[in-house]
Amino acid sequence: MKRIAIVGAGMAGLSALSALTKQGHVVTLFDKSRGSGGRMASKKVGDASWDMGAQFIRAHDASFMKTLHEWQHQGWVSEWAVTPHVIDAEGIRLSDDETTRYVGVSRMTALSRQLLAPATEFIPNTRIVSCQRTDSEWLLTDENDQHHGPFDSLIINTPPQQALPLLENSHLAAAINDVEMLPCWTLLLAFPERIDTPVDAAFVHDSAIAWLARNNSKPLRDSGETWVIQASHAWSQEQVDAPREEVLHALEQAFFTALGVQGYAVSEHWLHRWLYAVPAKPLDAGALFDADRAVAVCGDWCQRGTLEGAWLSGQQAASYF
Asked: Which of 165, 116, 207, 163 lies closest to 298 in space, CA to CA?
């Protein structure tokens, strides 16, 4: 039995937690946010709520499909029976997409809370800023100069830019130094009435927007009319430091234009910038491991830029211990 620290409670970190606790290890998770889930984030403003990060889960890998079905049996996820539209210069039409999509119920963060349960300890609101390896143990220090540990092994589940300062004396730093992460501006809108459109989700082209979805079309969501609008990564990169009001206005207008509707009053809104949303080019390495220092690094950017990729990456990271 080992004492293992995981920095970052996103999907890959939760995946590693699942595997490690099944092996009997004692696992402590740290996260800079107040909760778990990373990009499985949800947001509530007034009476409105949204999944503001990852919109759904899908599976290509047989082992992950088995895991998804187990979660479904436990009531942690449910199928989102949606066929996305395509919106482009030719108009609005149904896509030929037949992918089965799943969502956490009653929000994406509900799944992360279930996956967090096996942790020996979860320490939120704690940003780890340095990790020191002695002869056989890890000691972690947070931004308030509080020390944590000792631990036998360490798993880092953060974007590569945030992992680098924690890997100063590991050869893994060179392996991830050039990994590029792309941003994504996300606008959340709520309306006092239902928008008259057959679209519940759509891939959008020729626009600042790449994806939009009627959040309340997902199973077991609040009934109020809520929409998630995700900008394209290229547009987000161009506008990465633009004033928030300008970004909000541009995405709101692009939303109405894409759906071909006007005259709907917005009752609530929220704008969020995901600075490290997805990898431009995943490493396709599964996870990275420094055996000499007993540290592994995982995340969707190590495998594939999806929740499935993050889960598989976490499983591989855990296998090293």
From this structure: 163
